[in-house]
Amino acid sequence: xxxxxxxxxxxxxAATLPLWPSPWLGLAVFAGAVLVLSAVDFMLAAPLRDIExxxxxxxxxxxxxxxxxxxxxxxxxxxVLQADLRDAWxxxxxxxPSLHKVVVEPGSAVTLETSLTPTRRGDRPAVRLTLRxxxxxxxxxxxxxxxxxxxxxxxxxxxxxxxxxxLPEKTARxxxxxxxxxxxxxxxxxxxxxxxxxxxxxDVRSIxxxxxxxxxxxxxxxxxxxxxxxxxxxxxxxxxxAVLAGAEPxxxxxxxxxxxxxxxxxxxxxxxxxxxxxxxxxxxxxxxRHVLLPRLVNALAPLQPSLVETDFELVVGEVLxxxxxxxxxxxxxxxxxxxxxxxxxxxLPRLASRHKVLVAAVHDPLLAEARGDPYLAAAALxxxxxxxxxxxALTRHGVEVLDAPVDTFASRVADTYLALKQAGKL
Amino acid sequence: xxxxxxxxxxxGAVALVFAVTGVAYAVNEPDPSDPAFLSPVSADGIGxxxxxxxxxxxxxxxxxxxxxxxxxxxxxxxxxxxxxxxxRVVHPDYLAMLRLLPPSTRIVLVDxxxxxxxxxxxxxxxxxxxxxxxxxxxxxxxxxxxxxxPAAALRQRYEGEGVHxxxxxxxxxxxxxxxxxxxxxxxxxxxDRIGEHGNSALATGLLADHPRVVWLDLHKLExxxxxxxEPGSPDGVPPSLGTDPRGGSxxxxxxxxxxGSRGGEGDGTxxxxxxxxxxxxxxxxxxxxxxxxxxxxxxxxxxxLVQLALAVVLVALWRARRxxxxxxxxxxxxxxxxxxxxxxxxxYRRAKARGPTADILRAAARDRLAQLLxxxxxxxxxxxxxxxxxxxxxxxEGLLDxxxxxxxxxxxxxxxxxxxxxxxxxxxx
Lengths: 426, 429
Description:
The complex is a heterodimer of chains A (426) and B (429). Chain A has 426 residues and is α/β, with parallel strands linked by helices. Chain A has helices spanning 4-14, 23-44, 167-178, 209-214, 250-267, 292-300, 312-322, 337-344, 348-354, 374-396, 409-422, and strands at 51-57, 60-62, 67-75, 81-89, 95-96, 99-104, 109-116, 122-134, 141-142, 154-158, 191-197, 219-224, 230-236, 244-245, 248-249, 271-277, 281-285, 327-333, 356-362, 400-404. Chain A folds into four domains: 4-44; 48-158, Immunoglobulin-like (Sandwich); 193-224, no CATH class; 230-422, Rossmann fold (3-Layer(aba) Sandwich). Chain A contains eleven helices and 20 strands. In chain A, strands 2, 4, 6, 8, 9 and 10 form a six-stranded mixed beta sheet that branches. In chain A, strands 17-16-13-18-19-20 form a six-stranded mixed beta sheet, with helices on both faces. A four-stranded antiparallel beta sheet of chain A has the order 1-3-7-5, with no helix packed on it. Chain B has 429 residues and is α/β, with parallel strands linked by helices. Among the domains of chain B are: 49-224 and 239-265, Rossmann fold; 340-428. Chains A and B meet through α1, α2, β4, β8 and β14 of A and α12, α13, α14 and α17 of B.
C-alpha cells in the first residue's frame, strides 16, 4: 500500500509536465517511477512475520486509578523496522496513547508503554494490535490483519471499595463489643468466654455461684460475641440492580457494602460466602478465611447488571444447598413490589426458617422536583407506599429490612451486622 | 402508529389507483416519436395505412415524404394537401415557410402545440385539453365535417379565427393565402380508430380535397434548413430547398417533384445555396470526427489532468487503508433512577387523573397527621387536627375529604394546602 508521500511525489512531478516536449511521455515516466519506487520501498519494509510482540505489566487496577501495560516490540528481521503501531483497547479502558511510532534496529527490541485509566469496573481487554511497517523511503508500507498476532491481555478493574474509610470505625466498635480494647466493662455477647475473679464494679448477675463454690474466690463469667458464624452475601444482579443510584448503578453500591461487610465479618472471625445471582449464578466465593478479601474483590469485579428478572427460587435453593449451618443471609436487592412481591415472598419462608435474613436495599433517590408537580408527587408517594408494604410483608416473615440512601448504605449495613452480633442473633 | 395507519391505508390505496391509471394512460397514449405513428406505410394500431389505402381508393395520390424540405417543395407545386401528423418535430424555420405555400394547397396539422402554431404564425391558441378524444357532432358548416357526421375529433381545443367544428376540436381557416385545417385529435386518422363513428369520412374528406396528398412522415427533429435570404431569389420558394445536398437522395415519391423545383429555381441562387449547405455539412462531419475541446488546451494540460487523476486514485488507496477497524464494546445496562415514578406521574397527567392523584395526596397527608398526633380512640383525626392547630374543623374536613379538584390549578392548591396543614401540625406540637 502507498502512503501520502507517493501521492505528493506524483502531484509535485505533475507541475513539471508543461516543460516536457511530450507531456504524455512525462506522465508515463512519472507514473512508472512512482510505481517502481513504491514497489521497491514495499519490498524493503521490514517483514511483518519477523516481528514479535509481547506484553507485560499490570493485571489489575482499582477503578479510578491508572495502570501501565508495556508492549515489547522485537525485530527479528535483517531490516530496520519503521512502524506505526496502534494498540486498540476497548474504549472504556482509557488507553493512551493509542498510536505509537517506533523504530527498531534489526535484532533489537523496544518497549512501549500504554497507560490505562479505566472508566468502568470489570474486565477490559486489549482487542487488537495493528502494525504498519514502512519502507526506508516511506513511500509504501506493509500491513496485514492478524499479523503479527495480537498478544492477549486483560486488565481487571476492581471495585473502588470507597467504604474502606468506614472500616477503622466499625472495627473499633467490634473490638468494644468483644471487650478487648475497652478495659472497663466486660465484653458483651452470648457466648461463654472464660471465668475470672470478681472485681468491684462487675455486674453481680454474672457471678457464677457454682464455680465460686468450688473455689475460695468469687468468680464471674465473662462473655464474648459469637465467633465462627457464617455470613452469606447474596447480590441480586437482575434488572433492579441496573437502576442508577446517584452516579453508579445499584449493583456498585451493593458491591461496596458487601465488601465492607465481608472485611468486618472476617475481622470478627466469621466466615463469609458470596453469591451473585440473576437467572443463573454469576459469581460465587466460599470458605477460606485467610485470602478471602482479595478473592472476593476479584470475583465481584466483572459483575454487570443484566436486564432479566431475578430468579429468587434459584437464590433460595443455592443458599440452602450451600449453607447447612445457620447463617446470616444478607440479600442485596431493591425494595420493589414487582420483583420481591412476586419472586421472593413465596419462597422466603423456606429461607427464613433456616437462616437469619437481612434484606438490604439502596433507595431509589427520591425526586427533588416531585414536590412541585402534584402528579409526580402522587406517583412518588404511591411508590413509597408500595415500598412500605413490601417492607412490612418482609418483616412479617421475621426478616430484617434495611432501606438506606446510597451514601450511607455500606455503613448502615455494617451497623446492622454489628447490632445483630451484639444482640446475639447470628 | 395505529392512528397513522388509519389515514395512510386509504390514502395509499387512492394514490395507487391514481398511479395505475397514470401508468396505463401513458402506456396507451400513442407516442408521436414512434416511427409507426400515423405513417402511411404502417399497419400498426397507431399507423395510418388504412387511411392511405382509403385515399388511394378515392383516386388520391399519396406522396410519402420523410423530410420537410422535400414535402414543402412538393406541396409548393400547388393543388395538393400537405398532411403534417407530427408538427412538433418540424423545425420552426420550416413551419415559418408554410405561409409561402400557394393558395391551392391545403395544410392539415394534427394536434399542433402552441409553439408550433406560433412558429407557423397561425392565429390560433390551444385552450383546454381533454383526457381522451371524444366523438361529437360537427356542428359547423364545413363541408367535410358535415358529410362525416359525428367523429372523435374533440381533444385539444383551439381558440381563434376560422370556422370551429366538433366543439372547437377542428378549426378550418383561410390564413394568408393558404387553406389550413387544424385538428386536435389524431384518432380519426389512426388505423385502430378510423373505423369508428364518422372518423373515416372525416379523415378522407379532409385529405381528399385535392388530387395529391403530401404526407410528411417525420418523427425525429431535423437540422434547420440552410436558408439564405438572397434578395434575388424568386418569391415563394425558400432558396435552400432546391439545393440541399441531400435533397435528391430522398425517397422515390418525392424525387421527381424535387428535381423539378430545383430546376426552376434559377442559377444565381444555386451556387450560394450549395456553398452554404456544403459548409454546414462539413462542419457537421467535423463535430462527429473530433471534439474541438481537445484542441482548446495544450496537450500538457491533459497529461497534467490525467496525472492528477492518478494522484487522486493514490490518495484513495492511501486513505482507504485504516490502521485497524474501530473497536466495539458492549455498553453496560443502566436504568435511570426513579424511572417508574416519572412514568407513572406522566401517565396520571396524560389521563388527567385528578381524582386518584388527590386521593393519594390526601391519604398520605392523613398518614402523616396520624403519625404526628398519635390519635386517641374516640377522637376523630379532623378534631385532633383542629385542636392542634386551632383551625375550623369543617375547613380541615374539606381539605382531607373534600370534592375532587376540577382543574390542575385546584389540584396544585390542594397539594400546597395539605403540605401547609401538615407543617402547621408539626409546628404546633
